Amino acid sequence: MYIEELTLTNYRNYDKQKVVFDKKINVIIGENAQGKTNLMEAIYVLAFTKSHRTPRDKELIKWDAEYGKIEGRVLKRNQSIPLEVIFSNKGKKAKFNHIEQKRLSEYIGAMNVVMFAPEDLNLVKGSPQERRKFIDMEIGQTQPVYIYHLGQYQRILKERNALLKDLQRKPNADSTMLKVYTDQLIEHASIILERRFQFLQKLRKWAQPIHQGISRGNEQLNIDYDASIDVSEDVNSEKIRIVYEEHFNHIEQKEIDRGTTLVGPHRDDLIFYVNDKNVQTYGSQGQQRTTALSLKLAEIELIFEEVGEYPILLLDDVLSELDDYRQSHLLNTIQGKVQTFVTTTSIDGIAHETISEAEIFTIHEGQLVEER
Amino acid sequence: MYYPEPISKLVDSFTKLPGIGPKTAVRLAFFVLDMKEDDVLDFAKSLVNAKRELTHCSVCGHITDKDPCRICDDSDRDGSIICVVQDPRDVIAMEKMKDYRGKYHVLHGAISPMDGIGPEDINVPSLIERLKDEEVEELILATNPNVEGEATAMYISRLVKPSGIRITRIAHGLPVGGDLEYADEVTLSKALEGRRDL
Ligand SMILES: Nc1ncnc2c1ncn2[C@@H]1O[C@H](COP(=O)(O)OP(=O)(O)OP(=O)(O)O)[C@@H](O)[C@H]1O
Ligand SMILES: [Mg+2]
Ligand SMILES: [Zn+2]
Q1: Which of B114, B158, B182 lies closest to A159 in CB terms?
Q2: For chain A, how many structural domains are there in total?
Q3: What 3 state SS string does A9-26 have?
Q4: Is A203 in the same domain as A272?
Q5: A179 part of contact set with chain B, CB < 8 Å
Q6: Rounded to 5°, angle at Cα B113 from B118 and A93
Q7: Residue A92 dihedral angles phi and psi, to the nearest 5°
Q8: Per-residue pLDDT reduced to its tens digit, B7-31
Q9: Distance from the CA of A342 to the center of ligand 1, in angstroms?
Q10: Smallest CA–CA separation between B182 and chain A, in Å?
Q11: Claim to verify: residue A303 and residue A367 sit in the same structural domain
Q12: pLDDT tens digits for range A177-232
């Protein structure tokens, strides 16, 4: 799939901008603070209705403007589909083929996007939350129903934690309501965990050979799912449910004492190993970077496997950061099949034949100009 | 912007209504100034009367001008079935469908520890009392199909189950008086799949 055109209105530092993109590689060159990341972000938001760098939608609206709008046409399965996301002080709206979609899970997945930016190193180095976000976003964009379960789970979790806080203060209170929330929580937790296990198996399958390729055969990548319950990865949600039930039963008092939910997908993590050593703890900068890159490239293949078309790849400021070997490995993998957006302050750092075929844009103060 | 005090007060009153921002409030206030005096008086009276003359039915909790309400008082209705809803508007919506001949119990909310609302803060205790006094065979739980509504239904179900009363759950498409938040919520598209036993 690819974006044919994009129109930004009062979005970040863009007043009004319409661009027609190349099917393959688009390079966006500009000095700092001209709007490169904003453009990448706009494409990301069109796919997810959320920014990758802020949870506050208001920041996306141009200062002093009443509303901000991103419109695009995506070619998918030989059909050109108009997509639209609008932000205003009343909230946001997402339209698929001009029809407003009331539910996030009905909109997401219309367009698949993989973004790789310098902060993606946090995937390996950062907090467990970053890794959970990675899994959730990736499963969500190929299985919208997952977003539904995740939303319900988070809502129940908040209620349950509030109740546990109450019970902590009044230890002799009736715990019927806690049992209700535990049941509800488990219902969604077991489906979330099942989907994560399935996702992980696919991720490994793709990431391992890719990592081996990038490391010239020197490194073997392994990924573990660190679950807060003891359950094997190949079981279904029914079995997972039973394990959760036993576990929650067992720790009820402890949860009341602590006033918070101690088990569940919101407590889980991923662990990456290179040659059997934990990369987060022991990996070098380069190994961490390679791991993040392998995961992102694996994601591209995984989406192709699930959706039948390659996603759109956004490379914000990373290409020039990679050494020549990694750079060409990346570009060789995507060459000719993945629509890719590359931002950079200078094209000098990128020496690859794909760039010679690319569409080049320059950007200055929120104005995009096509160079060739 | 400076307005004469009576107008400011009127604007301020309008902004207390849901969905009315300052701009709309100003527009409404100026509209009222242009209305005929009789119409304005009627309007003011209706507001006050709606508040003064309506109470909550002491049996079912529905809004009413006489107590017990017309539904509770109607001997043609089947008292062996009680439909539990969150909001008086749900009763009105159900009554429009004209299919249902049982009685109601209006909870006035749903349990939500996050908002500090426990079972005692809504009409759950009065429901339990009612089940002891009346000959009820079936309880239909028609709370909203969101997390809080589901949890409330499950809670009531746990309390009532030992009594042997049949408990069913009705799933409506969109919650009638419910809030449909854009981001995280998807209403279950189980609309009118009938009642399921809990
Ligand atoms: N809501 C907004 N309204 C107007 N301008 C904004 C808004 N949000 C951000 N900006 C401005 O957009 C400019 C460009 O930001 P952007 O992050 O896209 O730069 P960049 O080209 O990626 O730069 P760098 O090379 O440093 O990463 C910033 O100067 C910022 O002040
Ligand atoms: Mg940038
Ligand atoms: Zn009544």
Answers
A1: B114
A2: 2
A3: EEECCEEEEEEECCCCEE
A4: yes
A5: yes
A6: 125
A7: -125, 155
A8: 999 999 999 998 888 889 999 999 9
A9: 17
A10: 6
A11: no
A12: 999 999 999 999 999 999 999 999 999 999 999 999 999 999 999 999 999 999 99
The answer on A280 and A318 residing in a single domain is no
Q: Which residue of B has its CA nearest to A144?
A: B186
Q: What is the pTM of this model?
A: 0.85
Is residue A229 situated within a structural domain?
yes
Question: Look-up: residue for tokens 């069913």?
Answer: B168
Domain B78-169 has CATH 3.40.1190.20: no
Nearest CA to ligand 1 atom 9: A12
Is A176 marked as binding a ligand? no
Q: How far is CA A8 from the centre of its chain?
A: 22
pLDDT score of B181: 32
Ligand 1 centroid to A32 CA: how many Å? Answer: 8
Quick one: DSSP state of residue A276? T
Closest residue of A to B110, CA-based? A159
What's the burial of B44, exposed, middle or buried (CB within 10 Å: 0-12/13-18/19+)?
A: exposed
In this complex, do A159 and B182 lie within 8 Å of one another by their Cβ atoms?
A: no
Query: Which residue range is the domain that position A233 belongs to?
Result: 127-307
Residues of B within 8 A of A148 (CB-CB) are 186
Using one digit for the tens of pLDDT, what is the confidence trace for B26-83?
A: 999 999 999 999 999 999 999 988 888 889 999 999 999 999 999 999 999 999 999 9
Does residue A50 lie in a domain region? Answer: yes
